[in-house]
Automatic annotation (TrEMBL):
<dbReference type="Pfam" id="PF01180">
    <property type="entry name" value="DHO_dh"/>
</dbReference>
<dbReference type="InterPro" id="IPR005720">
    <property type="entry name" value="Dihydroorotate_DH_cat"/>
</dbReference>
<dbReference type="InterPro" id="IPR050074">
    <property type="entry name" value="DHO_dehydrogenase"/>
</dbReference>
<dbReference type="InterPro" id="IPR012135">
    <property type="entry name" value="Dihydroorotate_DH_1_2"/>
</dbReference>
<dbReference type="GO" id="GO:0044205">
    <property type="term" value="P:'de novo' UMP biosynthetic process"/>
</dbReference>
<dbReference type="GO" id="GO:0006207">
    <property type="term" value="P:'de novo' pyrimidine nucleobase biosynthetic process"/>
</dbReference>
<keyword id="KW-0665">Pyrimidine biosynthesis</keyword>
<comment type="pathway">
    <text>Pyrimidine metabolism; UMP biosynthesis via de novo pathway.</text>
</comment>
<keyword id="KW-0560">Oxidoreductase</keyword>
<keyword id="KW-0288">FMN</keyword>
<keyword id="KW-0285">Flavoprotein</keyword>
<feature type="domain" description="Dihydroorotate dehydrogenase catalytic">
    <location>
        <begin position="4"/>
        <end position="289"/>
    </location>
</feature>
<dbReference type="GO" id="GO:0004152">
    <property type="term" value="F:dihydroorotate dehydrogenase activity"/>
</dbReference>
<dbReference type="InterPro" id="IPR013785">
    <property type="entry name" value="Aldolase_TIM"/>
</dbReference>
<dbReference type="GO" id="GO:0005737">
    <property type="term" value="C:cytoplasm"/>
</dbReference>
<protein>
    <submittedName>
        <fullName>Dihydropyrimidine dehydrogenase</fullName>
    </submittedName>
</protein>
Amino acid sequence: MTNLETTYLGLKLKNPIIVGSSGLTNSVEKIRKLHQAGAGAVVLKSLFEEQINHDVDRTIYQGAGMDYPEAMDYIKAYSRNNSVTEYLDLIKEAKAAVDIPVIASINCYSSDEWIDFAQQIEKAGADALELNLFVVNSDKNSNPSDYEEMYYKIAKTVSQVISIPIAMKLGLYFSNLVAVVDKLSVSGAKGVVLFNRFYEPDIDINNMTLTAAEVFSSPADIRRSLRWVAIVSDKINNIDVAASTGVHDGDAVIKQLLAGARAVQVCSAVYKQGPEIVTRMLEKLESWMKEQKFENIDQFRGQMSYGKMKNPAVYERAQFMKYFSKFE
């Protein structure tokens, strides 16, 4: 019998497909549908400190003309606590509604809030916590190592104040990703998600305004993560790797597992095709395993990782034209 079970962050998953943090996981009703479709776990929509502060400022703006500073302080505290309480309630309700791991997610930019939010999330019953951090560094006088140190500090600080496992959701933009993941692994992180999908700007040339680029990933975007999943999972053995970006079908799930991922996060594919795509991905994974005569995922996980290749340099190739110069 084919066994699709895996472990991620020390959690037992009935299968490796995790629905990533997004509007797909912002309500119990949606989470139930994902569970019914077969998802092995869900990552709740992120609790954004920036959004909380925006909501607070909007509330104060709508109440313009208030004469008492005490009233403004009260509104700030009330609005903030209300946003956090709603998120904590979502954790509790989701845990009661489904029997799969519920992973919380927070996105902060001030260090004190990381600690406060993380502690409250653990008390609410989340099985794990995904930390979503990215800052566009546009300061030419800054030291790149200081930027990376921020990740290590947050991983260490949060892991010391909560007992549930934490994962760092990383971006692609590091000069030495392997070294960063290695340092995260000794700073308290139990896993990394490769990669985060960020807001990317575009320019409307007719109206001369900034707009958002395409929000969803495409199947071709798997190229951004596959290489690094294969390299990182092989070189850093004391941390779990979850693959994300460009996973749109069962073939992509299989590829990421062969590269060494312990779990695979999906998001854009569910937006485009509905929760049923999770079911189809699982059906493809199971049928492929039967064809290949694999009884469980551990029998083939990482077979195509960096260290398992006869010529691992194939994952290091960077010069495009060297390999495609024959095309005219």
